[in-house]
Amino acid sequence: MTESPRRRVVVTGVGAVTPVGTTVATMWESLVAGRSGVGHIRSIDASTFPTRIGAEVLDLDAARLPTGPDMAGTINLLDRKNQFGWVAAAEALADSGILDRRPGRIGISIGTESRRPDFLKQLSIGDVYEGHHAHLRYSPFVFGGVLSQHYDLTGPQFTVSTACTSGTQALGVAYQAIQWGKADAMLAGGCDSLIDPLMLTGFSLLGALSTRNDDPSHASRPFDLHRDGFVLGEGAGMLVLEEHEHARARGARIYGEVRGYASTSNAYRLTDSPPDGQGAYLAMAHAIADAGLTPKDIQYINAHGTSTHQNDRSETAAIKRCFGDQAPHVPISSTKSMMGHLVNGGGAVELIVCLLTIQHGILTPTINYEVPDPECDLDYVPNHARPATVDQALSNSFGFGGINATVVVGRVDREAA
Amino acid sequence: MSQRVGRRVAITGVGLVSALGSDPAAYWQALVSGTSGVTRVKVEGLIDSGDAGDAGCDGVIGAPVTGFSPRAHMDPKSLRLMAPAVAFGVAGAQLAMADSTFAPGSVAPERFGVFMGSRGHSSDRQDLMAAVHRASRDGGFSLATFGTAGLPLVHPMWLLKGLANNVLYFVSLKYNAQGMNNNISMGGVGATMAIGEAFQAIQRGYLDAAIAGGYDSGLDLDRVEMFRASTLLSAETDPARASRPFDRRRDGFVQGEGAGFVVMEPLEAAVARGARLYGEVLGYGSATAPNSSAGLGPSAKGFGLSAAAALAEAGLVAPDAVFTHGLATVESDVAETAALKQVLGDRARTTPAPAIKSMTGNTFAASGGLEVIAALFALDAGRLPPTVHLTEPDPACDLDYVAGTSRAMALQTILLPNANLGGAHAALVLGRVKG
Fold it and tell me: Is A304 a catalytic residue?
């Protein structure tokens, strides 16, 4: 498709803060065990809300947050979601070891949104925004600035806000920035925190959330006939993407290669996805083509799989269109069945899951899959993890406003590496 | 030696909503004649802080959009879902499409993309106040009461009205643009990056046409309040003197608003269909380098790295002119000046570098788009708009900022640096289309 030279991009570090584990290792253990992170909401009083369940991060070690007098200014700029992002970024950078060697030009790409004003403070207009740096604390791009300042990362920066698609799109543009020679490495991912009265209100009014309040651990049930909406989650996923030769030259451990990316727009409706899955189909087809592959080369799909009626049917239709006769033979699973919907952070965590699936040869399950939906009739890796050889996988994200993004990752052979 | 790759990319349409109107030719004439859009603005819901000099009740100094009627561009049903800044964005993109005469159906839907410099989520406080008050008794707010009695008072579509990517949605829907896209919520570099990313997508063959630009408002209640708490705004009380980039007495920016969009196509296709060629995108670069840990902000390093990358891609040692970021804060203008001296070397002092924010104020995510449109008219007219209100030079800002009045000058290339308040920087190089 392009005439210009394209550099290869690999992943050399991963970090995650999720409701089922606040490190990549503990998250993976939970996902393989099929453990749900959904429970009754504890961080706010949601007792009178239509939805009273969520997937909260309850066990993050405060020592991993920026501490000490010289970090006071930094922590003051970071809200809850950005603090998750900070911790995941630190894990990913340490994991990659990229800062230990003389690094090249490193950029930043974050899927996130603006912080919204404090609900309670809205009563006293005039006091909502306090301090000289309120404009930064409430800006979507503050996290990128803070990371750049702290780690001296001077490459290109992206802050992407496309709702549920942000994390995947942030990774996609980071991949392109390296591929096109604009950066040698990118710290990329997404973060979010939606267990918040405003978000609970907004999503409840749209009828998007599960109201299975008496049975939280079974509330997120993607592709199951009795699914009734998604579960709000929180957390962050961050990855270090690196130019292949740059990573090899410093002897970095390589999780896998980012091989393809595409973003598309449904141009359809604000919240609904088209029944034929057109935009999602295009995202998968274009990303697979961008990777120089065909659908038969893909051995695992990490679905967007939100557990809403609409999404799961539309995504299934899109997969069938893209994969044709192969569709029933491609394992598909939804990480959201266990950790709920991390919205701006979801795509990044889910791409880490794809990389670990390739590395460990284990497919993580879609839990709570009990009654098949006749319109969702593919292999969703129901309820239990299972072994499989996966050389190439893809991760889907689709969001309100109709933006879709798909990233394809693949194994890097040791010999070839 | 140019580092250009792939296809040449032309700009074939422009659309804007601004303090100087929404007709591009009139906007250009206003800039050339040194007309300032700065005035006194009433902000709904704003309460006087009681501080000396606070003009909350009499209106704040700002550069509000003029000559714009949302209903002329959108149906009432859609408008109910749009905060004012969102309406600017949708209208700006529509105006650019109309100006381009580009027929959306002439390329495949998945080869047509939209790149948005977005303000992030839209202002929504007023829409919530009834529900918040319902849940407040005896001066205290009860979340439990809100859940039962307040929540039903919130509009069911409230969340979608504030959706950060709503303009991207409305624009891609209207033109059935299904291809590669982005919603870059990065303040002052938003439109610059959106245009740069669209340029790359066409250049490298991912798209055959794109709409790109940005929209924002610094004049809604939330923005006015949060910046009033900062040290970044000008304290000038006379609208006729406010917003004075590079002047020794500058003391901050003036909040503005608007939208600036362009339509971009491969040059070859644009020529083939006989499109108006406003100019060509020659280079794009971006970098991050906050000035300090607490306040972040633009830096000389960031301006320099991004400008150098854009010039390298364009294959230029120096452009014929620079349309500066010219934010009018003490630090940013010094940093930008230092960066231009470093990047342009001996050529810095002889390269004219006007700041149109002296007339439009700071329009945040729209500013890159509005500045690109001004630069395209400058290339065509062979004339540079002035930096107004620059009457006392600052020794630390010693370049040729085209102070006071416009200047005729043959122009082939223009560099456009921008920065945001978080320390992200981006730059574009535009050129006249040469055969």
Answer: yes
B304/A216 Cα distance (integer angstroms)? 53
User: Containing H/E element for B119?
Assistant: none
Residue A235 to residue A205: CA distance in whole angstroms? 23
* Residue A163: φ, ψ to 5°: 50, -130
* Secondary structure class of A400 (helix, strand, coil): coil
Topology of domain B9-124+162-431 in CATH is: Peroxisomal Thiolase; Chain A, domain 1 (3.40.47)
pLDDT at A132 over 70: yes
**Residue A415 has which token pair?**
């010999």
Q: For testing the chain B interface, which of A70, A162, A288 should be mutated: the one with the most B CBs within 10 Å?
A: A162
Q: Give every CB contact of residue B109 below 8 A, 6+ residues apart in sequence.
A: A267, B176, B177, B178, B179
B50 has pLDDT over 60: no
Q: What is the DSSP string of A5-45?
A: ----EEEEEEEEEBTTBSSHHHHHHHHHHT----EE--SS-
Residues of chain A numbered 3-22 and touching chain B (CB < 8 Å): 3-4
**Domain topology for A9-410:** Peroxisomal Thiolase; Chain A, domain 1 (3.40.47)
Closest C-alpha to B168, from B101, B215, B200 = B215
Within 8 A of B293 by CB-CB distance, chain A residues are: 73-74, 149-150
A107 min Cα distance to partner chain B (Å)? 8
Cβ–Cβ of B178/A265 closer than 8 Å?
yes
- B205: distance to nearest CA of chain A, Å? 5
Write down the ipTM of this complex: 0.97
Give the span between the Cα atoms of A200 and A193, in whole angstroms: 11
DSSP A364: P
* pLDDT above 70 (res A365): yes
Q: Tell me the per-residue pLDDT of B227-245, one tens digit each, with 9 for 90 and over.
A: 998 999 999 999 989 999 9
pLDDT, tens only, B285-309: 999 999 988 899 999 999 999 999 9
C-alpha to C-alpha distance for A180 and B313, rounded to whole angstroms: 12
The full set of domain ranges for chain B reads 9-124+162-431, 125-159
Tell me what pLDDT residue B54 has.
52
Structure tokens at B64: 């509000």
Separation of alpha carbons A220 and B417, rounded Å: 47
Question: What is the spatial distance between Cα A407 and Cα A179, in angstroms, rounded to a whole number?
Answer: 14
Strands (DSSP E) contained in B101-228 are 112-117, 136-137, 140-141, 182-184, 209-217
Q: How far apart are CA B62 and CA B84, in angstroms?
A: 16
A159 touches chain B (CB under 8 A): yes
End-to-end CA distance of chain A: 25
Tell me the torsion sign for CA atoms B321, B324, B330, B332.
negative
Query: Which amino acid type is present at position A214?
Result: D
Question: What residues of A are in contact with residue B165 (Cβ under 8 Å)?
Answer: 161-163, 399-401, 403
Set of chain B residues whose Cβ sits within 8 Å of the Cβ of A265: 113-114, 168-169, 172, 177-179, 181
A150 catalytically annotated: no
Delimit the domains of chain A by residue range. 9-410
| Active site annotation includes A309 | no
pLDDT tens profile A27-65? 999 999 999 999 999 999 999 999 999 999 999 999 999
With contacts defined as CB-CB under 8 Å, which chain A residues touch B47?
125-126
| Model pLDDT, residue B57 | 58
Closest CA to B265 of B255, B245, B252, B279: B279
The 10s digit of each residue's pLDDT in B198-208 is 999 999 999 99
B346: which residues sit within 8 A by CB, 6+ positions away?
none
Is A149–B290 a contact, with Cβ atoms under 8 angstroms apart?
A: yes
